[in-house]
Amino acid sequence: MNIDDFLAYIIMPILSTSSLLVFIRFLMGPSLSDRVVALDLLITIGIAIIAVYSIISHRPSFLDIAMIFALIAFLSTVAFSYYLEKRKRNE
Amino acid sequence: MKSLILKTVSTTLLPLLILFSVFVLLRGHYLPGGGFIGGLIAAIAFILHAFANGLDQTRKLIRIHPGFLIPVGLAIAILSALAPVIFTGDPAMTGLWYEKDIAILGKIGSALFFDTGVYLVVIGVCLTIIFTISESV
User: Fold this and answer.
1) In 3-state terms, what secondary structure has residue B88?
2) How many other CB atoms are there within 10 angstroms of residue A3's CB atom?
3) Closest chain B residue to A82 measured between Cα atoms?
4) For helices B4-27 and B35-53, what crossing angle results, to 10°?
5) Can you state the angle between helices B69-87 and B110-136, rounded to 10 degrees?
6) What's the gap in Å between the CA of B48 and the closest CA on chain A?
7) What is the 8-class DSSP label of residue B90?
8) How many domains in chain A?
């Protein structure tokens, strides 16, 4: 088994299953903060999927997309927490 | 928001993201990238700075109103589209290319100026929308 088969048949299903589980948590999540954390984790899994796909398809230019995704992934969490705090102050 | 970590990260990430956006803009002819994505990345850099340091600081950093970038970008794009009609007599939006390679940029042509116009328009639109929303909330 070479590295491409390993990534395609073992790592990719694991990542897909984990993203499905996180998405269920995102839909069910009792409180808003649970959903925000689930969204953050979804973005992180997306970065992993892009990186693995770039190795499988032998295209290093996809890695730049994963890099910019990783740089700004925390921005959504920051923005959500910013507006949650603002809403609490307004109430 | 008063957070020392976020402030430090934003001052480090702002030049890095703008550099990356210019890289994506220049690479856009043959590889993934281009004016639209580069403009979005540059707008995200300023939005991150606005979250960390407050809106007034970011306005001071940009100096001009971001809406001013929209007509400038549109003018650059329209001029690059009309350049073949004016200079060589070809139909509008024909790609004009300079024959020699330039050190870092590679082949330079009217498509690069069109992309630069798109880049400025996207930055202007994104920053105008986000600043208006964060003022009203």
Assistant:
1) coil
2) 10
3) B1
4) 170
5) 160
6) 7
7) P
8) 1
What does pTM read for this prediction?
Answer: 0.83
Question: Residue B1 above 70 pLDDT?
Answer: no
Whether residue A62 contacts residue A54, with contact meaning beta carbons closer than 8 Å, is answered with yes
Tens-place pLDDT, residues A29-67: 888 888 999 999 999 999 999 999 999 999 888 888 888
> Tens digit of pLDDT for each residue in B49-77?
988 888 888 889 888 888 899 999 999 99
Q: CB distance B32–A82 less than 8 Å?
A: no
What sign for the dihedral angle of Cα B7, B9, B12, B14? negative
Instruction: Give the phi and the psi of residue B102 in degrees, each rounded to 5.
Output: -105, 145
Its domain, for residue A73, covers 3-90
Whether chain A has a CB inside 8 Å of the CB on B91: the answer is no
Q: How far apart are CA B17 and CA B15, in angstroms?
A: 6
Contact check, Cβ <8 Å, A65/B32: yes
> Looking at the complex, does the CB of residue B51 fall below 8 Å from at least one CB of chain A?
yes
DSSP B95: P
Name the A residues in 36-75 with CB < 8 Å from any B CB.
Answer: 61-62, 64-65, 68, 71-72, 75
